[in-house]
Design brief:
The protein is α+β, with helices and mostly antiparallel strands. The protein is built from 8 helices and 13 strands. The longest helix is centred in the first third of the chain and has 26 residues. Belongs to the inositol monophosphatase superfamily.
């Protein structure tokens, strides 16, 4: 890899945790007869992956802060830098034996995301980006798509579940968007939705109710690939507000107008 020392640390950590998750993923199908058993197994896999990531990342940069899905937040001696980590994005997919889940690692400096790594271990696709260095998948430079017509655009979102308060708004947005585009996908891993916008596989993505570790790494991937990223509610912080909209540059304004209503 030709990134900075920090990117190389992040990639090494993601690959090590990814090997552990991939091994666990091969076992998960054997547990499908018991929902509780499978759920407990995935929880252990998640915690094991986070432990590996924490050992690798904080071992290499012990003064940096830490924010992760399972382990919560820990201040570092260096108050300007922190790791933002999701050890297993797409847990429900993992639980059901669907090979669409990822590890997400971001580095924040003075409130700005300056580096990100997303590792799809099931497909051996490692996405990474660093401020000013572009976005990459393995050794391939990534570019947001060049589609210019909404009717050609393929978009992604996360449809709320289990009575989430954001469901009515999402259904209204889908009703406005679906008649004017080529399709909407709901694949269940926000980090990979963002990575796919960076790779030009999706032309845009929006979602509410996200956590910082869901989106942090993906934001810099999209930006470094030439895409546009904004909070759904203008003037808010995406990481703190948990609502994001992004797309390639030609489609962004029209897409955002539809989503924002």
């Amino acid at each position: 890899m030709h990134g900075s020392a920090n990117i190389n640390i992040m990639i090494k950590a993601a690959r090590k945790a990814g090997r552990a998750l991939a091994k666990d993923f091969r076992e998960v199908e054997n547990l499908q007869v018991s929902m509780k058993g499978a759920g407990d197994f995935v929880s252990r896999a998640d915690l094991t992956a986070e432990k590996i990531l924490k050992e690798e990342l904080r071992g290499a940069r012990p003064t940096y802060g830490w924010l992760a899905e399972e382990g919560g937040e820990e201040a570092g001696e260096d108050p300007t830098r922190r790791w933002i980590v999701d050890p297993l994005d797409g847990t429900t997919n993992f639980l059901h034996g669907l090979p669409h889940w990822a590890i997400s690692i971001a580095l924040e400096h003075k409130g700005q995301i300056v580096a990100g790594v997303i590792f799809d271990a099931a497909k051996d696709e490692l996405y990474w980006a660093e401020k000013g260095a572009g976005a990459w998948m393995n050794e391939k430079r990534l570019r947001a798509s060049g589609r210019r017509s909404m009717i050609e655009g393929l978009f992604a979102t996360g449809v709320p579940f289990a009575g989430a308060a954001t469901l009515p708004a999402t259904l209204q947005e889908l009703a406005r968007l679906m008649p004017v585009c080529s399709g909407v996908r709901r694949w269940g891993a926000a980090s990979l939705d963002l990575a796919y916008v960076a790779a030009g596989r999706f032309d845009g993505y929006w979602e509410r109710g996200l956590k910082p570790w869901d989106v942090a790494a993906g934001l810099i991937l999209v930006r470094e690939a030439g895409g546009l990223v904004q909070p759904i509610r203008e003037g808010r912080s995406i990481v703190e507000d948990g609502a994001v909209i992004c797309a390639n540059e030609p489609l962004f304004d029209g897409f955002a107008k539809i989503i924002r209503g």
